[in-house]
Hints:
This protein has 19 helices and 16 strands. The chain is of the alpha+beta class. Helix 2 (37-51) packs antiparallel against helix 6 (168-230) and helix 16 packs across helix 18 (566-580). It holds the Pfam family GAF_2.
Amino acid sequence: MKAETNLHHLDRETLKVQQEMEILMESFRVITSSLELDDVLKKIMRYASAIFRSTDAGYILLFDKNSEKLIVKSYIGFNDQIRSFRVGVGESIVGKVFRDGCVRLIGTTKEIYENMTDLSEENHTILQAAAVSTRKIKSLLSVPIMFGDIRIGVMTLHRFEREKLPSERDLLLLESFASHVAVAIHNAQLHEDVQKSLGEVTHLLTKLEETNQLLQQRTEIHNHLTRLSIENRGLTSIIMEMDHLMEKGVFYADYIEGKCYPSDNLPYEKIIADLFLLFINKTNPAYVSISKDVNLSFYVYPIRSGSVFLGCLIIVGDDPLSMTDRLIVEQGAPILTLEIIKIRSKTDILYRKTFENYHEFLKIKNPFQAELAVKELGIETQSFIQTVVIEMSGNVDQDALENETRSLLTRLNRNLPAENRLISSYNNKIILFSTTSHEREQAKLIELIEKNIERWNKMFTVAARAGVSTGLYYPGQAEDNHNKAEQALLHLKKQSKNGVFHFREIGIARLFLNHQSSEIESFLAETFSLLWTDQEKYQDLLATLISYVQHNRSMVSTAKALHIHTNTLYHRIKKIEDLIGADYDNFEDYLRVQLAVYLYNVFYLQS
Length: 607
């Protein structure tokens, strides 16, 4: 009877082993039948719980090279929070299993938790939150997943029912299972890497194809717009074609002329001055919104030729430009630049020719020939003559300076009366020559020039200064009037001033305009003596002398202006006489002092 019982027990054990082997073999077949990593890992966990039926929970961690952490990839008996469980190499049980490449079998709760003391607080919190059961782990089995000598990860199984080590047969089954798991995971990872590489190659091929298409499109756009330029269709035709290709409102705002192309964009001319101020020193395009009478939004592309600002290509609206639209803008901009330079060159030649003809006219002294020459310039001679010489200056290169000169010239051309005047420019100078029949017309013209230059100097960093000369017109004497305007301009330059200055306001300063600054300073040093050469020590005495001369040697007026007592002033004056070696009662000595004070005020104090 006992023998029969043992035989029956043996049959059950044999049947169990046979079933486990069948499950194991089935697991080998199933987990190696897929190459999708996530699918493989899920099947591994499912078969692990089937082979080791007493398993209550478990997870597979794979090593991530970037973070150098073991990361949960598949699990049973936990909720989704277990995905946040990330273990360092050597940390807790699973970290040591991975590091050492050895199986860990722990059969008591106490020993398990003693081996988990170095688990980080964050990971400990995650494990507690991820546990489906509140029961403690009674036994644990953790096995490294290795492909040859390469460690891939760790598989760990938990039991909550009882403290018991797995049998030797369980261990053999687990090691056999783990070896096949490693092969399956390695194959799946290889497949994933291949798919990723294939995806990258496909992406690169797609990008290459897109790039080739863009290059072809760019070439077509460039050739199309270039053909319009070669055929001399003009600036407006190129802008209109860009408008047609983009199906958006496109126009060009010219900085020099201060107007738009095509000309039917007149409403926008009210705001282009603001755009010019925004983009005059910029090279990159930008979206701009302007709120005045109505809200307007644009994509603005500055058109430049080196350091020279030509204007703005403007696309109406704030919608992002498509790649095709950007190609049209990028290819159109240099063609527009070339077209604008062509127009500018023709205009520059015209102004330069006018400039040369004007100077030829100035050289004519014979009244009869001068009358013929001035008519050839388009001027009807009248009673009064006006000559204005304008010079531009600023911290920019010569090309940019000439560009600003053209811009001011265009504004003057637009704002001044068109009749009976000549305007030309060369480099950074503008010449305006005209005749009028009445002094009031003359005064009105000069006032307009003053307003235009004042407005310019308020808006722009490149400054304008102008010398003006007016008077009665005598044929053959126009050069004299021109030279006076040049002298008025020179007077402004000497004082480092901008604006407009009339020759008649110079006074006796005209006698010293052509003297070098070093000559004037030498005269001041000779006259003021120590008051000039040691100004730090004698600053108060120099100020006293200047005030004394300006108040016509009036002791009372000078003392009042300096806020000192007349006795104090008397002692200062005597001391000054001794220092500079001058006798104020001597006509020549005092004249030298007066002249020195005048030159100081004109050429030093005002600058």
